[in-house]
Every structure is written in structure tokens, then in C-alpha cells.
Write a structure and sequence with these properties.
With 337 residues, the protein is an alpha/beta fold. The chain is 28% helix and 25% strand.
Length: 337
């Protein structure tokens, strides 16, 4: 019988193994299995009653001969193949003992996101590859508070320290200064190879050739479709808005406030426990926002987040610490102390 949306999904744990060189491991399905010859992230079925993380550790030991030492929950995707309806629980695997090698006749290949050299890749893995392109830290501009010139100076310093994603969020700036500011931020981000998105104004984002647009929660709930730009994100505060973002097919979500924040002093913080509960089983990368600093990045990732979104924390002149710009095994060691 062909699989369908009503078929009970098969639970699968998959590991996105990330090396210190910012490469990740793909394995090729051997002859005799469905989709033989296709490439995928390593992993396998979760046994009844088995925690997904334990299943991943077991599968990587059996498939690759390694012992996983450090793993973080990430995104959960469902996909309906002709032969099965699967729920894939993806984990970032940041530490292991041993050298991965084939133990089940499968080919292995370490790949770089910007130059994937193997094909075809299983369709269910496509959104995960896209999520890997998003960095761990999202900086949100605060020219409304410190002024445009000072904000651009802080942006230059942050980009030099490795910040690779910026959201322009200037609700009170007049249109002419905003256009100038957007152009300056876009140019600086493009020169640094950073993603730049504009909060709320799809037309202005398109006119300035920005990488994407970010939808405030009220705009998210009104939208009938995803913006036709490279990146589209959304702000969420609760399960209803998270569900809407997933249904709309945005690329990432910012969820909070997780902690008390001076920019929204009346907003009740979610706290890490509620944040983790909301993002559990969620299909999109989620940034924790609200009182975040780089010191919170490790906690956010343990809770299942993509990373952290920061306003003041992104532009602090007192913190010379480099930003982690990619997902490597050193992210929570050197970069999050």
C-alpha cells in the first residue's frame, strides 16, 4: 500500500555531522534499499520505546563505527515517499570518537554547503541543507536607539568579528533615512558575505536587492503566501503563530521573548522550558530572541534552537569575542565561552 498523509509515520533519527572544517557527512543508500544511490544524512529507524537521541547514537555506531559524544536536537521534518511516510528527527552531531567509516556497504562523502558534489540527495534532506546555510547568530539593528552613524559603525565591527546575518528593524525611522540606511546595511553585508533581511517591508527589500524579508507576527497572520525572495522569516510568540509560519513555508522563525528585555519591558518572558517545548518537533529553524547574548547560544542550541537573535547583544562594543559564523565542532567550545 502506498504511503499517505494518513499513514502513521515511521520515526527516524538523522545526524547532521559537522566537522571543524565546516563540512558535513552524507552517506549513499546501498543497493537493495529504497532509493538506492541517493545521498542522505546518516541515521536510521527509532525502535519502539527508544528515545530518538539514543537511536541516533546506536545507528551511527552501527553504520559508521563511531561513538557520539555531543549532540543537539534540531528540526523535525515529515516526508511522504512512495514506500513510506517518515518523520525525521534531525540532530546536529558536534562531537564523536573514532573515524567514520562504512560498515553497511554505503559510500561516504564529506561535503561543503557551497559546493555539494554528490547527487541525487533524498528530497526530505533539502530543507535541512537550506537550514545549514543560516548562521547561529542573527543581529537586529538598533539605529532607532543609537543613531544611524553609530549603528553602521557597530555593524562594521560586528561583521569584522564574523556576524553573518542581519535584520534591519527600524519601525520609527522616516522613509528617506530608512532607504539610505537600508542601502548602507545591504552594501556592507554583501561585501562581508552576510545575509541581510528587512523587517516588514517586502517592496523596499526587493527594490534594494536585499536577501529577504522578515514578517512581524501581525503581518505573518495576514499573509496569504510566502514572499518571493531568497529568504523569508517571521516573528512568533506562541504556538498559533508558529503553526502559521510553518504552513506559510517561511525559512526560519524568531521566537520570544525568552528572557526579560529592555526593548519590550512589558512582555512576559517564555523562559527556556517553554521555549524548548514550543520548538520540540518543529519543522523550521528557530532563533531564540529576548535578552540574548553570545553566552546564551549554548543554552539555546540545547533547547533545539538554530541559534540566537540579538539586538543590544549583537552590537556591544565591550565584547571583542568573535561570532561563530558556521556550524562546526568548535561552536560551543571556543565561541560560546
Amino acid at each position: 500500500m502506498a504511503a499517505s498523509a494518513t499513514t502513521r509515520p515511521v520515526e527516524v533519527a538523522a545526524g547532521v555531522m559537522l566537522s571543524s572544517e565546516n563540512t558535513f557527512l552524507l552517506t549513499q543508500r546501498p543497493e537493495g534499499k529504497p532509493y538506492a544511490g541517493y545521498w542522505e544524512f546518516p541515521g536510521g529507524k527509532v525502535e519502539p520505546g527508544e528515545p530518538a537521541e539514543a537511536a541516533l547514537v546506536r545507528e551511527l555506531r552501527e553504520e559508521l563505527g563511531i561513538e557520539v559524544t555531543r549532540v543537539q536536537p534540531w528540526i523535525v521534518r515529515q516526508h511522504i515517499y512512495a514506500h513510506a511516510h517518515v518523520r525525521l528527527r534531525f540532530f546536529r552531531v558536534l562531537g564523536w570518537n573514532g573515524r567514520p567509516h562504512s560498515r553497511e556497504a554505503q559510500a561516504l562523502s564529506w561535503q561543503r554547503l557551497e559546493a555539494i558534489s554528490v547527487a541525487p540527495v533524498l528530497p526530505a534532506n533539502g530543507p535541512v541543507l537550506r537550514a545549514l546555510a543560516l548562521p547561529p547568530v542573527l543581529g537586529i539593528t538598533d539605529a532607532w536607539e543609537r543613531g544611524e552613524r553609530a549603528a553602521l559603525d557597530r555593524l562594521d565591527a560586528a561583521l569584522a568579528r564574523g556576524l553573518r546575518m542581519v535584520m534591519i528593524r527600524e519601525k520609527t525611522m522616516a522613509q528617506d533615512p530608512l532607504r539610505t540606511f537600508v542601502g548602507e546595511v545591504q552594501r556592507r553585508c554583501a561585501d562581508a558575505g552576510a545575509i541581510a533581511v528587512l523587517n516588514g517591508d517586502e517592496e523596499l527589500a526587493r527594490n534594494w536587492g536585499m536577501d529577504g524579508v522578515h514578517l512581524p507576527s501581525a503581518q505573518l497572520l495576514r499573509c496569504s503566501g510566502r514572499a518571493d525572495l531568497r529568504w523569508c522569516g517571521a516573528s512568533c510568540h506562541n504556538a498559533l503563530e508558529l503553526d502559521r509560519a510553518a504552513a506559510l513555508g517561511v525559512d526560519y522563525v524568531v521566537l520570544g521573548p525568552v528572557q526579560h528585555t529592555t526593548s519590550h519591558p512589558r512582555a512576559a518572558p517564555l523562559g527556556w522550558e517553554a521555549f524548548a517545548s514550543l520548538v520540540r518537533d518543529y519543522p523550521l529553524p528557530v532563533y531564540a530572541v529576548g535578552g540574548m547574548t553570545l553566552r546564551d547560544l549554548c543554552m539555546a542550541c540545547r533547547a533545539g534552537a538554530q541559534g540566537v537573535a540579538m539586538v543590544r547583544g549583537a552590537w556591544s562594543a565591550d565584547d571583542p569575542q568573535p561570532f561563530p559564523s558556521g556550524w562546526s565542532g568548535s561552536v560551543s567550545a571556543a565561541a560560546i565561552r
